[in-house]
Write a structure and sequence with these properties.
Chain lengths: ~240, ~240
């Protein structure tokens, strides 16, 4: 049986402020938890309705009713784990780096982290306005990739000014990406869902690229930031 | 002021059964509604807190409280429209066609419809197990692309057996898509989020392709179906 104060601590971790205060974040689902247990992350507590049969002193068997009380999901899985937020590792300014300028949607960030993992992008740099990568919806969407990508939150304009790699950004009027020469080292900047890349960041971008539209040219909609990232990373790596 | 029966009709359209019974679906958000008003779709009713200044006899000015009652969104926009579900147009079996084998997530289907629109794929063929394209979450995610892609729900195995185009499918063990010769005409089959392409459909696929992984080879996760579709359509079109 969970105490009231335990429940309060866990459910509070939905909020960024409380995650930062306590230094913990929540992971749900047996598959993702098992993947994270094999990573460098440190487990704080594991609440589960069925034992994991692992040597974890901090495993607590709980009832389905208790799991429902602490879960962030409408349909809870059978386990919820609390891990310690790891210390930020410095950004390695080599290879291909993805930078996000105020990406707000947790699902989009989660998908982009998975894409970085898939395409071997080791460093993801986020502006301070980008959604927190330990947000439960982001963690859920990353499916374990979170541990394999080094994520830093920085002053993006200041960071981009310090480095000497070419800086790519997606713009409607950019050069056709299928005809662009893409280097092995560089930074790919992706912008906010509604407003794209901010003026301050745009001023630092050295190479504007675009994904050509093949459909009805009258239509005004752009691609979603996560699908555009998928296509651009594929172009950098192919 | 909306009557109880009006509210019941509108909120009922969240369910596929009632959409099919009444032949209506719901669209929210001024931008998407305006885009759909310019399409071939027929408006049944427009409920809005601010007039659209259009010649629509079926425009009804309502209060914010009433909009909240009928909206499917946690944070309602300023308008909700009901359109008639158009009659299915026959599938044109030429050019590039995308086929979905039991894609269940509304966000994924919405993203794939947008991708078809972007890459000029005019025909999207869905198995009967695929989520309904008039589901409000799908409509929300398509951002107007819904009117520019011809979507049919069919017995997918039977359909694939009748046509003579090459049938491509994404499989982990498939040929590297970056090295494959991709034709201008063909069918690209994408599978279910958890189980991939079903055995019955797999038996009909003539070309298995894969997106190579560049990251840590130990990791087992695959790409999300919508991002994989983005990369594969980009490869077909580039």
């Amino acid at each position: 049986m969970l105490s009231k104060s335990q429940i309060k601590l866990i459910t509070g971790l939905k909020q960024k402020k409380q995650r930062q205060q306590h230094g913990f974040f929540v992971v749900e689902g047996v598959k993702t938890i098992k993947e994270l247990l094999q990573s460098h992350l440190e487990l704080y507590a594991l609440y589960t309705t069925e034992t994991f049969n692992i040597d974890a002193k901090n495993e607590v068997l709980i009832s389905e009713a208790d799991l429902k009380r602490i879960s962030f999901l409408t349909t809870p899985n059978t386990a919820l784990a609390i891990f310690k937020i790891p210390a930020q590792k410095p950004i390695e300014t080599k290879g291909l780096i993805v930078a996000l300028d105020a990406v707000r949607d947790p699902g989009n960030l989660g998908t982009i982290i998975r894409l970085c993992d898939w395409f071997g992008v080791k460093n993801l740099v986020c502006s301070k306005e980008t959604v927190d990568c330990f947000n439960p919806k982001v963690v859920q969407a990353t499916m374990g990739s979170l541990t394999r990508v080094n994520i830093n939150y920085v002053d993006l304009v200041a960071f981009l000014k310090t480095i000497s790699l070419p800086v790519f950004g997606a713009f409607m009027e950019g050069e056709n990406v299928y005809k662009s020469k893409l280097p092995e080292q560089g930074i790919l900047v992706m912008g906010n869902e509604a407003n794209g890349v901010s003026k301050e960041v745009e001023a630092i971008i050295t190479e504007k690229i675009s994904i050509p539209r093949f459909g009805d040219i009258q239509a005004t909609e752009s691609l979603n930031v996560a699908t555009a990232t998928a296509i651009l990373l594929s172009e950098f790596r192919r």
